Amino acid sequence: MSSQVASITAAAAGTLTLGGEVTVNRLGFGAMRLTGPGIWGPPKDRQAAIAVLRRAVELDVNFVDTADSYGPAVSEELIAEALHPYPKGFVIATKGGWNRPGPGQWTHDSSPKHLREAIEGSLKRLRLDRIGLYQLHTPDPAISFDASVQTLAELQAEGKIHLIGLSNVTREHIERARKIARIVSVQNRYSVFDREWEHVVDYCEQNGMAFIPWFPLGAGAVGHDVLSRIAHAHHAKPIQIASTWLLQRSPWMLPIPGTSSVQHLEENIAAAAIRLSEDEFRQLDDVNGKTAAGRIRG
């Protein structure tokens, strides 16, 4: 790891303001991978996980995304152990709406009762009086979506949530939710090689909402020829170019690449300093048959 890469911070990505109230650097950290295999149980090396979180803050990461279901509970506990008392302006985004019966197993529960219990648990584990950004982790097919969102709105009114976000949702879900509460962010799967939610990215940009891509580096395609060629030209790694493409895709994009390695964390953050030319951006955009005309952002 070169000293130049290790000195680049998340501030190089610029900033984004959530809900017109909370400004964060536009390259965050996803804390899911700090747990054990199958997103279950503690990490193999707890001190290494804590070191990653502390290094992220040293690199000006001030937005960390987690969920009560990661572990379950483990990710939130690690964040508090590593970082509490939190730096000024540090935002923790967590989520609720899943149960975890075992490793690699996820079952829906976005009922009002469960969400209230989930938020209380997250507040306790994170040692917070109010959660900076609370996201409905996924719509529950057995529960009224409107009732789930209404519960979050009530908890916001009670002072337990500052801002509300959604995850794994369609545009219809977002529009319905916005009739009930102010929605400041959407977190869906998205990467240079996975554009299923392209229209949701556009919708978020049009309406001033952050789009938080999960699986943002599309790890299964990091060896793609175009990605590798552009990475070579920038003396960078393909995963860095994948992250750079996201940052230039929209000023409302807030990538949260995760890792359990300090070295990989520093590489991920160093992507904030890379700038793709319009032609390079278009080459990557065209991998999925899209057109980048007029869409590249500096």
Could you say which structural class the secondary elements and strand pairing correspond to? alpha/beta
Largest sheet: 7 strands, parallel
Task: Tell me the name of the CATH class.
Answer: Alpha Beta
Strand line-up of the largest beta sheet: 3-4-5-8-9-10-11
Tell me the distance between the termini: 26 Å
Instruction: Please write the string of helix (H) and strand (E) elements.
Output: HEEEHEHEEEHEHEHEHEHHHH
How does CATH name the architecture? Alpha-Beta Barrel
- Which regions have little confidence, pLDDT < 50, spanning 5+ residues? 291-298
DSSP, total strands: 11
Whole-number tally of structural domains: 1
Helix content: 25-40%
Shape call: globular
Count of helices?
11
Characterization of the model:
- This protein is an alpha/beta fold and 298 residues long.
- The protein has a single domain (3-288), classed as TIM Barrel, CATH 3.20.20.100.
- It is built from 11 helices and 11 strands.
- The strands form 3 sheets. The protein has a 7-stranded parallel β-sheet, covered by helices on one side.
- Helix 6 (171-178) links the parallel strand 9 (161-167) and strand 10.
- The longest helix has 15 residues, at 112-126.
- The chain is globular, with a radius of gyration of 18 Å.
- Mean pLDDT is 93; it is low at 291-298.
